[in-house]
């Protein structure tokens, strides 16, 4: 199985680790209309003040983009790299965190439109070996993964998993490494019974996508999301 996108709630800033370094784009804003909109936005000063306050509160660096009836505003504050004194810019690449969930959900709906899956299908139809080791795995549908009603154990709250990540941030994780942390664990609720936000749902969704496309997830993301939308500065970061 291919490596999974890690959905970590805290957005880590870029560091000077050359092995995994992804450089920012050369030009943060090359669209003059977009640039002018950002400069003239009536809420620009107030938005920048919000960012600056977060830095005063102790966050190393942050970026923000706001699109409203007044146009588009993009700004940054703090540092992307404290050690090398590199100031944060809007073009620095950051992890998207749980925005990933919406992207994966979008891919799932595209596959449904293509007739390659139905969200009412059981996950056991696509990843039987995983489903059989999940509490109530034989009753969970793709729809439950997408709306977080599956009841699958929440890996983000697993102490052993979090300790393993924190103890070695340079470790390369594959699917098997992660699956063990939510296999044969107690369910939070019965399938479909209630909402319970869980990163595990998205991890399993990624594996289902790979089982359908027979391609690495990064290829599918490029084909169905990044390239069609012109997201030229968005990358799948398989670490």
Topology, element by element:
Layout: H1 32-40, H2 44-56, E1 61-68, E2 71-81, E3 86-87, H3 99-113, H4 128-131, H5 142-146, H6 159-167, H7 175-179, H8 199-213, H9 217-226
Antiparallel strand pairs: 1-2, 2-3
Helix pairs in contact: 3-8, 3-9
Task: Describe the model.
The protein is mainly α and 239 residues long. It is 36% helix and 9% strand. The chain is built from 9 helices and 3 strands; from the N terminus they run ααβββααααααα. Strands 1-2-3 form a 3-stranded antiparallel β-sheet. α3 packs parallel to α8 (199-213) and α3 (99-113) packs across α9 (217-226). The longest helix is centred in the middle third of the chain and has 15 residues, at 99-113. It is globular. Mean pLDDT is 87; it is low at 1-19.
Briefly say what this structure is.
The protein is mainly alpha-helical. The protein contains 9 helices and 3 strands; from the N terminus they run ααβββααααααα.
- Look at the structure and give the mean pLDDT: 87
Low-confidence stretches: 1-19
**Helix- and strand-based class?**
mainly alpha
Number of strands: 3
What's the shape?
globular
Helix and strand pattern: HHEEEHHHHHHH
Kindly, what is the distance between the CA atoms of the first and last residues, rounded to a whole number of angstroms?
Answer: 15 Å
SS strand fraction? 5-15%
Q: Helical content, roughly? A: 25-40%
Largest sheet: 3 strands, antiparallel
Strand order of the biggest β-sheet? 1-2-3
